[in-house]
Amino acid sequence: MRTVTVALGSRSYPILIGEGALSKLGRQCTSAALGKRCAVITDTHVGPLFGSSALESLRKSGFDPVQITVPAGEKSKSLDVVSKCYDLMAAHRLERTAFVVALGGGVVGDLAGFVAATYLRGIAFVQVPTTLLAQVDSSVGGKVGVNLKAGKNLVGAFHQPRLVLCDLRTLSTLPDREFRAGLAEVIKYGVIFDAAFFEKLESNLPSLLRKSPKLLAEVVARCCEIKAEVVGQDETETGLRAILNFGHTIGHAIEAVFRYGAYLHGEAISIGQVAAAMLSSRMSTFPAADVERVRRLFEHVGLPTQITLGDSQWKKLEAAMRLDKKVSGGAVKFVLSERLGAASWGHPVPWDRVRAVLCETHGPSRPDPSGKQRLTKLFNSQAIRPQSSRTRRP
């Protein structure tokens, strides 16, 4: 089992990555010196698959868990659902020595983490992410929160987990669309931090789409290493950590406009990242040839890279962007990439430039649940070949 450490002094914690890691949940919670009672918060998709395994592992190690199941989907990231979790935990007499286990994808992790951060003014929690997106991104770093009607993650806190446990076997149960959506966050790390990693994804995408166990372990571990390094330097996003929002200002706005239904998070930020790469080329030093490499990689994964909106939707998109957490002094601030493997934050971008790049018609504009738009025959026979010169990590 691979271990990555998030270095935060006395609040440092391990990320454990491996096949069958879920069976070690109880043992790892014991090592983390957690209290004996806990709430396992999961959803209606994940609970039937992994709830019993999590509870069994905890009980074997002497813990007394209670399972709380919420409806699957982004709409559960709400204050109403948070309140129901509070009520159930209080009904089971969970005290301040208790802890929360977040068993599920990014929605469950954000929700359960927020519950833990605020119940009895804060109790411990453990992340057990079961989707690719959650394993490489949302389970690490302590950002927890819920949505408002006005926008995504507008209510939240920084509350670090005591442990992150990534069982790669849980990814075998993911629908293909969910797995591909998770790759959007994977690609992001290559664009903003590690050019060599981006090239590795280009060269090995067919194997990654086939979920090669060895490659998958390497990819998840590298993403966690990058995020751990960034979070270790800037826990509360006062500087460097902002680069992790590459493509998210637009992506979150797209999710809000479509009411968290038509687009998965990874699909929305795929569009956002391609747009951010285009803006980076026009407003910074990002090479145009690399914009095409970014676009091509997202398209080959089977993710949308462009969006078509009506007049009222454009207005809603602009309004949602202006409610983003990264707005400062009324200006929408963007993360732009200077070159593959390097990014900077805090760039004000006028709305007309954002709309201009989103209006350019390149690639698919809608989610592809079946994956039929992928160039399957190509992937089964060869890798994606970069068309620009080799880029070194700074």
Into how many domains do the coordinates divide? 2
Rg (CA only): 20 Å
Structure summary, number of beta strands: 12
Which structural category do the helix and sheet elements fall into?
alpha/beta
SSE order: EEHEHEHEHEHEEEHHHHHHHEEEHH
Q: Kindly report the spatial arrangement of strands forming the biggest sheet.
A: 1-2-9-6-5-3-4
CATH classification class of the largest domain: Mainly Alpha
Explain what this protein looks like in three dimensions.
The chain is of the alpha/beta class and 394 residues long. It folds into two domains: 2-173, Rossmann fold (3-Layer(aba) Sandwich), CATH 3.40.50.1970; 178-381, Dehydroquinate synthase-like, alpha domain (Up-down Bundle), CATH 1.20.1090.10. 45% of the residues lie in helices and 19% in strands. The strands form three sheets. A seven-stranded mixed β-sheet has the order 1-2-9-6-5-3-4, with helices on both faces. A three-stranded antiparallel β-sheet has the order 10-11-12, with helices on one face.
Layout of SSEs?
Blueprint: E1 2-6, E2 13-18, H1 25-31, E3 37-43, H2 47-60, E4 64-70, H3 79-91, E5 99-104, H4 106-118, E6 124-129, H5 132-138, E7 143-148, E8 151-158, E9 163-167, H6 176-192, H7 195-209, H8 213-233, H9 248-257, H10 265-283, H11 288-301, H12 311-322, E10 327-328, E11 331-339, E12 342-348, H13 351-359, H14 376-381
Parallel strand pairs: 2-9, 3-4, 3-5, 5-6, 6-9
Antiparallel strand pairs: 1-2, 7-8, 10-11, 11-12
